[in-house]
Amino acid sequence: MNIEQTDFYTQAILSMAALVGLTSFLMLGQGRLLRLIFVFAVQGFLLTLTTVLAAYSLNNPHLYISAVLTLVLKVIFIPWMLRREVLLMNTQRDVQALANKTLVMLGGASLMVFSYYVLHPIVQTTSPVMLNALAVSLSVVLLGMLLMISHRQAVAHVVGFMSIENGLFFAAIVATKGMPMVVELGVAFDVLVAAVLFGIFFLHIRTSIDSLDVDLLNKLNEVDK
Amino acid sequence: MIAVYLVLLIPLVGIVFFALGGHRADMGKLNVRFNAICLLATIWLAVNVLNQGTILSDNKAFLIDPFNVYLIVLTAFVGLTTSIFSGPYMAHEKDLGKLTDNRLKLYYSMYQGFMLAMYLVLTTNNMGIMWVAMEGATLATVMLVSLYRTPESIEAAWKYFILCGVGIAQALFGTILLYYAAMQIGDGESSLLWSVLYENASKLNPEILEIAFVFMLVGYGTKIGLVPLHNWLPDAHSEGPTPMSAVLSGLLLNDALYAVVRNKMLVDGASHNHIAGYLMMGFGLLSFLVGALFLHRQKDIKRLFSYSSIEHMGMMTFAFGIGGPMATFAALLHITVHSLTKSAIFVTVGHASQLAGTQSMDKIRGLIKTQPKVGWGLLIGTLAIAGFPPFGVFTSEFLVLLATMHSYPWLAPLLLLGIGIAFAGLFRHIQPMVYGDKPEGQHPVKANLWPVIIHLGLVLWLGLAIPEFLANWFSQATLLISGSTPL
């Protein structure tokens, strides 16, 4: 594939995929919570741009609604809520996350390779561009999981959770030109409710264990104590 | 068709009514009424399907066929009987000071919200909406798991939220891949409708669908409680209020399995190498064995029965995975009898732990001497769930075993071993609890055991003779899923 021969839309989508993937890696290695939230907002903004681009190029007006939803939810509301929580708890740093940074980054890189490997069979039926877009989405999903595993603060878990949603959203926009409208509205509604619930949860966790370190949530397990 | 809209509208009204209405003393009774009206609507719907066969609504948004119609009635029925139990139970919990008025309001509102999500999962024809509703069910129940606001319950709810949320995100990726495959053969908004996908299944790209199915199985499998994605299940069941455990075990797990089977039907239509079946067999058998082994280690009575749920869901997944007509028929029957038995057991477990004032099995003693109905209910329920004849669970497990011996004889010993281990695991805990002398100061509680009696009666009936219309539905559903009839 020669990238200069493809049309503008395809080139733009490929660059967006690369940038979204990059933000995921930036989040993975980030030990400061406020910067983590900022990178998350940037990722949301990139998604908004991708959606607007797709809506314009494919002449698909309902994607504009998705773009507005993404902008409001993932660039403004959720980062605002998380930022407030971090400042309130005065936990700007998630120190433990930095301990095994190299290993986590290497793990992230192998997850990306793995995504390409898993989705390789679809290359027979479509263009390599689609493979790139889908593989990046899948790796954003997997990197979100790795972020949740490697960080210990509840705020980082929420960022991971929401960045998984971002990966799925990117796949839906790029591969299928957006899901049917009702589905997209439903998903946005679920994300909104989830965000509100996370807010309520922070309050409960704070009052019950006086910290947002989820490692302290360890009372329930199968091991005899 | 009106019946479908009624089924969805009634719980919606219920959510708004309980959420916005002021606190009232008779919320428990009103909740029963909402569920009773809903059950009537589902029966109306079922009669329609019985007379006309499969119903597809005009805008193609809803599809009712023999496979989901009995699950809809089952959902409404278990929802109703559990609400009958939950009224006095929650009132008692409030008297103990575990709850406030506002949380009781939240509880009833979200009970209806959960029911709405369940009906939507079952009735919708759109695979995307199915996902949205499934996630909605998580969101509705997550606040209920942490209803008591103890550190343990908040931990359980957090775990439930994160694990199920991340898990089910995989199912959305699967759904996107499915849509992607569908877009290659036809464009437009209707490509995600199950009825359209099913008709064109043979044209869908098998490779993409197989990848999609892996994601669906992992995603919805988290909600089924398949090992190794099951960690949230015992926690959520043990820390939430008992009526919630009853509906989670009896309904939510079924609906997640339903979603997987719907997707399996598409994959089987597209590719003929049975990969979806093998995956389900593997995950199912693993869950079945691990669930059975973990029964032995439990100390909390609700955790005990949630592992029993994992074990049974594993068996159903395994049976659907085998995929022949007999195994499919057995799985459909097993869904029904497991839901009825397990929700009955959770009702008695709720009373038993209120009696003893604890969920710890070491401290629950002498149930039969204290309150014979509760003790016998628990004992008979456990007999039924362990697969004793003449209860329905025996029939379905026997059929699964027969189908296994027919198709994969070398797996049959594993299955038998698992059933044996599970039986021992249940009885070593239950026997000291129901028999023996009652501890000092243990008094009977106010309990309504009609739900238990009706459920166990039905399970007994299904074990002795399956009514003709139900057998017909099962056969038609089997035909739909496996391509041939069992008889």
Overview of the structural elements:
The complex is a heterodimer of chains A (225) and B (487). By secondary structure, chain A is mainly α. Chain A has helices at residues 8-28, 33-57, 62-89, 101-119, 128-150, 154-176, 181-209. The longest helix of chain A has 29 residues, at 181-209. The N and C termini of chain A lie far apart (59 Å). Chain B has helices spanning 2-20, 27-52, 66-95, 101-123, 127-145, 151-183, 194-199, 206-224, 232-239, 242-270, 275-294, 301-322, 325-356, 367-370, 372-385, 392-407, 412-434, 450-464, 468-482, and strands spanning 55-56, 63-64. A two-stranded antiparallel sheet of chain B has the order 1-2. In chain B, α1 (2-20) packs antiparallel against α4, α3 (66-95) packs across α19 and α10 (242-270) packs parallel to α12. The two termini of chain B are 31 Å apart. Chains A and B meet through α5, α6 and α7 of A and α5, α6, α8 and α9 of B.
SSE layout and pairing:
The complex is a heterodimer of chains A (225) and B (487).
Chain A: H1 8-28, H2 33-57, H3 62-89, H4 101-119, H5 128-150, H6 154-176, H7 181-209
Helix pairs in contact in A: 1-2, 1-5, 1-6, 2-3, 2-6, 3-6, 3-7, 4-5, 5-6, 6-7
Chain B: H1 2-20, H2 27-52, E1 55-56, E2 63-64, H3 66-95, H4 101-123, H5 127-145, H6 151-183, H7 194-199, H8 206-224, H9 232-239, H10 242-270, H11 275-294, H12 301-322, H13 325-356, H14 367-370, H15 372-385, H16 392-407, H17 412-434, H18 450-464, H19 468-482
Antiparallel strand pairs in B: 1-2
Helix pairs in contact in B: 1-2, 1-4, 2-3, 2-4, 3-4, 3-10, 3-13, 3-19, 4-5, 4-10, 5-6, 5-10, 6-8, 6-9, 8-10, 8-11, 9-10, 9-12, 10-12, 10-13, 11-12, 11-17, 12-13, 13-15, 13-16, 13-18, 13-19, 15-17, 15-18, 16-18
What are the main properties of this structure?
heterodimer; A: 225 residues; mainly alpha; 7 helices; 75% helix; B: 487 residues; two-stranded antiparallel ribbon; 77% helix; 1% strand
